[in-house]
Structure formats: C-alpha cells, structure tokens
C-alpha cells in the first residue's frame, strides 16, 4: 500500500473520561490503516491551526463575541494562515516526530476552515502528491464562512484528488464539485463506554444540547421550548445545556435566568459518566454532521431526540430522528419515552446494538484502503 499521512487538528474537541478507550474522531479511520497522523506546521514550527492564535484569542475576548450579533465560530480568513511565505512542508506527528509531507504518496487532510489556504497551496506546489480532503463539521458551517473563505473552500473541493465524508447530506454537496467522493461510516473505538455504570434511577433531568464550539447551530431555543411543553404536561424536569466553554458563556447567560434551565461548562473529567445521569437528551442542532454526540448517548444508554440528518443519530436512534424544528414530533416522542418503559428500553437496546456494530472496522478499513489506492492510481 502507498504511504499515507493524515493531517488532523491540533486541538482535540473532547474531554477525558475513564470510559473512553480511544480517540473518537476522524483519526480512527487512519488508525485502521496504521497510517501516520499529525498536524501541519508553519515555517516557525507552529501548528498551523493556531498560528493566528493572537487574533483568535483576541476575538474570543473582545466585542466580536457581544450578544448581538451572536457569532461563535469566527469563520473568517483573518483567523487563518493565508500567506504562502508562512507555509512549510513539515508536519509534526502525534508521537513528536517531524516529517516532510512530500515523502508520502498520499496526504489526507482535514478540510477545516483553518486549513483552506494551506490545502490550496499544497495543490499548487505538490502536484505529485495525491491530496484527499476529509470533512470536518457540516456544510451549514461553510455557509457561514466569509465570502473569501467560501470561495477558497469551493476551489479546494474542486481540486483535491478525492474527498471523504461521514454524512450523506455533505456527500451530495461535495459531489457537486468533485467526482471522487466516498461516504464512510463514522466508527466508535473498540471498548468505548464499557466501564460506564448504568443509570439505576431517574434524576428527572434532560440534556438540552451539547456544544463545545459552534453555538450558532446548537438550536438550544427549540430544546427549551420542548422542555416548557413537557413541564406544562406535568413532567417535573430540569434542563441542562452542557459543554459551553468559558469564552462562550456570555452567549448563553440569559438562559440561566430561566427557573428550570442551567448551563454547565466544558466537562474536563468523567464526561460519559455525566451523560449517563440524564433521562433524555435533545440534540436538535441545525447542522448536519457525523453526529458523535448521539452515539455517545447511545453508548451510555440515554435516548436522544435529534437531527435526522446527523449520520450517527439516524443510525443509532432512527425512531427518534426528526427535522430539527419539528417541536410537535419532538414533544410526542419525549412523552412516549417518559411514559412507556418498553419503548424506552427497546430504543436504548437498539442503539447499543448499533454501537457494537460500529466498533467493527474491517469493512470500512477495506473500503478506505481501496479508495486511497484507486485515487493514487487515477492520479498517476
């Protein structure tokens, strides 16, 4: 097989947990192939993702994060390295080794907004290298990019030798620009969740959504309206929004004025154990992604009413997957879960079966290896 390098993000958007056995993100695909994994570096040996960290940090603190308009993600070229003089061909592997990307046959790189200009640069300067993009986030994120960043994203999609997606909605967008697109299931690390203690009693607590990054698409308001409907129907539930980082807290602070709603910060330890304390989760984000949160709740035995366009939501919770603003359907499903023990147990059991299936990688590993080989052959 050709030598493969996967360039990922420098920051892992996850927390520590005693019940996690591996990295639950796109790096899992390349663990399957035992490929090298790392992050790109600038000429100053700074990880490319945060080379504009001074501007990024300033943006988190200044009035860019004011209440109106609310923007949590800062999708703008000002926060990306775009000067070709700052790019290098070096990458730092996760084990600390520095490598030259030109020594590989295949480069697979996260198509994150930080990396658009870098990928464009590599396409122009490394024609002998097969370059494949892999989706990060959802296409709804791209619609919020600045115009300049959107056009660069478009050029990258059109120019890469192939593209990997873990969401079928994103796939139809990518196929508009590129003929060599493959959908691969987003898998779960083997043994993940195995040490989570099952919930033994109800705490009358509902998760109203989880976010550590893109609050703009979190749709907490619909979750709060759903909580209102359930309380009006006689369910004595408390709601929590979790995962909100410090620099986003003031964007959700007003929710804390509601009597039965609270926001919880980024959970540093015992994340899965904390998730298992909920009776029910509402994850009606309006961006279509891989849907990792839905799988995490499945792993700890808590049903999720969520966006039907998230791959893992539809895979684990098909009967609970709805349009993100269908509050009538969401209310009906929530009431059924809270009053029908058989429906609750059957939903959880089916979801856990899917988690077990998602911990088997052989078929996906073979598809990925074949895709990389055919892409290299076509590029030769």
How would you sum up this structure, described in words?
With 380 residues, the protein is of the alpha/beta class. The protein has two domains: 4-189 and 359-379, Rossmann fold; 205-358, Glycogen Phosphorylase B (Rossmann fold, 3-Layer(aba) Sandwich), CATH 3.40.50. It has 14 helices and 14 strands. The chain has helices at residues 27-32, 53-61, 116-125, 139-142, 147-159, 168-177, 220-232, 249-252, 271-275, 292-300, 311-316, 327-339, 341-358, 362-379; strands at 4-7, 36-42, 87-93, 98-100, 106-111, 130-135, 162-165, 181-183, 205-210, 238-244, 261-265, 280-283, 304-307, 321-322. The strands form two sheets. Strands 4-3-2-1-5-6-7-8 form an eight-stranded mixed β-sheet. Strands 11-10-9-12-13-14 form a six-stranded parallel β-sheet, with helices on both faces. Helix 3 packs across helix 5, helix 7 (220-232) packs across helix 12 (327-339) and helix 10 packs across helix 13. Mean pLDDT is 89; it is low at 59-70. Keywords: Transferase. It comes from Halorubrum vacuolatum. This is Glycosyltransferase involved in cell wall bisynthesis.
Classify the secondary structure makeup into a structural class.
alpha/beta
Q: Please count the helical segments.
A: 14
* SSE string, helices as H and strands as E: EHEHEEEHEHHEHEEHEHEHEHEHEHHH
Task: Just name the CATH architecture of the largest domain.
Answer: 3-Layer(aba) Sandwich
Tell me what portion of residues adopts beta-strand conformation.
15-25%
Q: What is the number of beta strands?
A: 14
Q: What is the count of structural domains?
A: 2
Radius of gyration, CA atoms, in whole angstroms: 21 Å
User: Any idea of the CATH class of the largest domain?
Assistant: Alpha Beta
- Measure the end-to-end span: 15 Å
Shape: globular
Segments where pLDDT lies below 50 for 5+ residues? 59-70
Organism: Halorubrum vacuolatum (Natronobacterium vacuolatum)
Keywords: Transferase
Protein name: Glycosyltransferase involved in cell wall bisynthesis
GO molecular function: transferase activity
């Amino acid at each position: 097989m050709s030598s493969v390098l996967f360039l990922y993000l420098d920051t892992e958007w996850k927390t520590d947990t005693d019940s996690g056995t591996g990295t639950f993100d796109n790096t899992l695909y390349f663990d399957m192939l035992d490929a090298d994994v790392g992050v790109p570096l600038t000429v100053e040996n700074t990880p490319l993702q945060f080379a504009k960290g001074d501007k990024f940090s300033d943006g988190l603190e200044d009035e860019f994060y004011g209440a109106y308009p609310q923007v949590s993600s800062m999708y703008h070229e000002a926060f990306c390295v775009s000067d070709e003089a700052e790019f290098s061909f070096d990458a730092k592997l996760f084990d600390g080794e520095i490598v030259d990307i030109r020594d590989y046959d295949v480069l697979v790189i996260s198509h994150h907004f930080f990396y658009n200009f870098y990928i464009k640069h590599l396409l122009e300067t490394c024609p002998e290298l097969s370059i494949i993009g892999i989706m990060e986030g959802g296409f709804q994120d791209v619609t919020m990019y600045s115009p300049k960043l959107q056009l660069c994203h478009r050029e990258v999609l059109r120019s890469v030798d192939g593209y990997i997606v873990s969401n079928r909605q994103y796939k139809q967008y990518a196929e508009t620009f590129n003929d060599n697109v493959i959908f691969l299931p987003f898998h779960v690390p083997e043994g993940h969740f195995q040490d989570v203690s099952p919930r033994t009693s109800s705490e009358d607590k509902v998760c109203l959504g989880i976010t550590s990054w893109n609050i703009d698409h979190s749709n907490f308001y619909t979750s709060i309206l759903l909580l209102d409907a359930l309380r009006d129907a006689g369910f004595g539930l408390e709601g929590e929004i979790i995962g909100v980082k410090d620099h986003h807290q003031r964007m959700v602070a007003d929710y804390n004025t509601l009597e039965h709603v609270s926001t919880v910060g980024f959970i540093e330890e015992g994340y899965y154990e904390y998730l298992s304390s909920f009776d029910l989760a509402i994850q009606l984000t309006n961006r279509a992604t891989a849907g990792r949160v839905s799988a995490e709740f499945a792993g700890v035995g808590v049903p999720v009413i969520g966006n039907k366009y998230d791959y893992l939501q539809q895979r684990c919770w098909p009967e609970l997957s709805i349009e993100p603003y269908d509050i009538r359907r969401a209310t009906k499903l929530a009431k059924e879960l809270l009053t029908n023990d058989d429906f609750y147990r059957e939903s959880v059991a089916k979801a856990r079966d899917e988690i077990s299936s998602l911990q088997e990688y052989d078929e996906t590993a073979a598809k990925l290896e074949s895709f990389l080989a055919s892409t290299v052959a076509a590029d030769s």
